[in-house]
């Protein structure tokens, strides 16, 4: 079975919004989200949660600047006040995650609430099917800013809109002064995220399984952490390299192999 072609469309409110597909709105104020881009949803709403779980647990697949994410906590009943209350939606689950940068000396880490919402209903099993995922950065101090690898938004939402035909749409609350036109960095980032969600949804529907299983001998996390420590400790050798070979390649390659051997010995 061939995966349907990804066919993104820049959002135009007059053409796509209906009573059931208007942008997200906050319960507490009149804040309206900005819809940026949409595409046909080629999988049922029941698979939306499975598709976005890949986005939640593996952000490194979408950005080379992210090392991995770690789950801090998960809840289906106790929700932080930082999580937005949205009209016509109810919170069903939230995951508090920590994003770890690939270059800690350059980029800061970031914690996020990843919140799943279902349409408001009577509370039966059908109504518990999530159709919206909202990512909310967590700032512990007013001085904190978003790292470069994070879009310039205060919140970002992935939505599955049940209509005829169903669509996937990304909506944002952009930071003040952030461009949202089709040539902007924010739009390009959302385009890549939407394509990833479209692919994950199709994979969930066709029971896609990886052809190659990674990290079977040595766990990924301790190896990555050790490599970052060794890279930071020995990066000065790049400036004092005495060989004619490329120091950027060989210094960090030796760090990688050394971390691999130490991690293997620890197992």
UniProtKB/TrEMBL annotation:
It catalyses: uridine(44) in tRNA(Ser) + S-adenosyl-L-methionine = 2'-O-methyluridine(44) in tRNA(Ser) + S-adenosyl-L-homocysteine + H(+). Residues 15-24 have a biased composition (Polar residues). Transmembrane segments: none annotated. Residues 1-25 are annotated as: Disordered. Its EC number is 2.1.1.211. One of its GO terms (biological process) is tRNA methylation. Its main location: cytoplasm. Belongs to the TRM44 family. GO terms for molecular function: tRNA(Ser) (uridine(44)-2'-O-)-methyltransferase activity. It is found in: Cytoplasm. This is tRNA (uracil-O(2)-)-methyltransferase. Adenosyl-L-methionine (AdoMet)-dependent tRNA (uracil-O(2)-)-methyltransferase. Coiled coil: none annotated. Keywords: Cytoplasm, Methyltransferase, S-adenosyl-L-methionine, Transferase, tRNA processing. One of its GO terms (cellular component) is cytoplasm. It comes from the Eukaryota.
């Amino acid at each position: 079975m061939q995966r349907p072609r990804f066919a993104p469309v820049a959002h135009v409110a007059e053409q796509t919004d209906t009573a059931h597909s208007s942008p997200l709105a906050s319960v507490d104020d009149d804040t309206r989200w900005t819809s940026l881009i949409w595409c046909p949803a080629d999988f049922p709403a029941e698979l939306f949660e499975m598709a976005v779980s890949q986005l939640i647990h593996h952000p490194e697949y979408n950005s080379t600047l992210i090392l991995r994410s770690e789950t801090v906590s998960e809840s289906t009943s106790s929700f932080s006040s930082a999580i937005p209350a949205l009209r016509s939606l109810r919170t069903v689950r939230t995951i508090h995650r920590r994003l770890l940068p690939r270059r800690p000396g350059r980029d800061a880490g970031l914690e996020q609430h990843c919140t799943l919402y279902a349409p408001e209903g009577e509370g039966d099993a059908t109504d518990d099917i999530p159709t919206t995922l909202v990512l909310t950065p967590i700032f512990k101090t007013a001085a904190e800013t978003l790292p470069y690898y994070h879009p310039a938004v205060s919140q970002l939402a992935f939505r599955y809109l049940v209509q005829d035909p169903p669509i996937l749409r990304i909506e944002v609350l952009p930071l003040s002064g952030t461009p949202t036109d089709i040539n902007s960095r924010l739009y390009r980032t959302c385009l890549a995220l939407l394509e990833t969600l479209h692919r994950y949804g199709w994979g969930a529907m066709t029971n896609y399984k990886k052809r190659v299983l990674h990290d079977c001998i040595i766990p990924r996390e301790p190896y990555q952490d050790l490599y970052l420590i060794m890279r930071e400790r020995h990066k000065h050798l790049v400036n004092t390299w005495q060989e004619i070979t490329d120091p950027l390649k060989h210094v960090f390659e030796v760090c990688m192999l050394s971390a691999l051997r130490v991690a293997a010995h620890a197992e």
